[in-house]
Amino acid sequence: MATDPSPARNRRETLVFHVSDVHFGLEDADAIAWVKREIAEKRPDAVAITGDLTMRARHREFEAATRWIRSLDVPITVEVGNHDLPYFNLIERFFTPYKRFKGVESVVEKELDLPGLAIVPLKTAVRAQPRFNWSKGWITDAALTKCLDAIDALPEGVKALVAVHHPLREVGTKGTALTHGGQKALTALAQRSVLGVLSGHVHDPFDLTQETVHGPVRMIGAGTLSQRVRSTPPSFNELRWDGETLTVRARNLGDVRTRHADRRCARRCDAAAPAGRAGRSGQSGPPHRSAGALKPVGSIES
């Protein structure tokens, strides 16, 4: 269980690295080496990897992912992404979909309990769904119940970060999630002590607030460490929790500063709405706009 948040513990800042969409098989070698160095230097309390470790769920891709994860030597939780389920072996996909995770199975969908903070998984990648595109998000009632039960079991005063692969609603990026059951999940999470929902999938960082009938939920997306970049260079998020404020900073390889969002927010954040297209030259293009009831929380910085 997560540690009770005593005042003495709260004075120690908790550092979490949020990584996503490494896509071994089409990984960016510079990016994964950079993140490994950052982890070795800063020694975060935990690393949350929100899915798509591999490109096509091939054995050699999982072997490379396993070597990299084991080399990090920090507490890790790994969410399953749509690219991590077998593409070419439907029998395995339906009956033993996690078989290829065997090298890191102990950290797959693992709850991480930190001082005053817990990272709780919520599965959004499924074996099949009643629509043609199986790459999109789908939250079953069983998966949501399991997540909510885990949050409800946390000690009083402990906050939760919920780790998913797909954003629970559209966030204005080029990539889409179209997560079935996402709004229902957000509404349920809004009634609990949830600091934010960590996701990947769209390959661009964002930090937005989604309004629900029960109040707002913060949605935090990490970019990619692969060659499959969209609007920003390879990146990851640094999250810092001091017991009162969750600060998010998007780090990218291109030293790209992108647009400032709502600076009137009470909490300090360095990452928010998705950035414009950028290369490693440090140039960025027009930013995307957030959608619907989403409200940007801060700004992205390198």
Key phrases:
Purple Acid Phosphatase, chain A, domain 2; disordered C terminus; 302 residues; five-stranded mixed β-sheet; 6 helices; alpha/beta; 21% strand; single chain; seven-stranded mixed β-sheet
Q: Could you characterize the architecture of this molecule?
A:
This protein has 302 residues and is of the alpha/beta class. The protein has a single domain (7-296), classed as Purple Acid Phosphatase, chain A, domain 2, CATH 3.60.21. Helix content is 19%, strand content 21%. It is built from six helices and twelve strands. The strands form two sheets. A seven-stranded mixed sheet has the order 4-5-6-7-9-8-12. The protein has a five-stranded mixed sheet with strand order 3-2-1-10-11, with helices on one face. It is globular, with a radius of gyration of 18 Å. Mean pLDDT is 82; it is low at 6-10 and 258-302.
Could you give me the name of the CATH homologous superfamily?
Metallo-dependent phosphatases
Q: Quick one: overall form?
A: globular
| pLDDT averaged residue by residue | 82
Q: Evaluate the radius of gyration.
A: 18 Å
The strand order across the widest sheet is: 4-5-6-7-9-8-12
Instruction: Report the total helices.
Output: 6
Characterize the main sheet: 7 strands, mixed
The quaternary organization reads as: single chain
Strand content: 15-25%
CATH class: Alpha Beta
CATH topology: Purple Acid Phosphatase, chain A, domain 2
Structural class of the secondary elements?
A: alpha/beta
- Overall number of structural domains: 1
Overall CATH architecture: 4-Layer Sandwich
- Order of H and E elements: HEHEHEHEEHEHEEEEEE
Please tally the β strands and state the result: 12
Low-confidence stretches: 6-10, 258-302
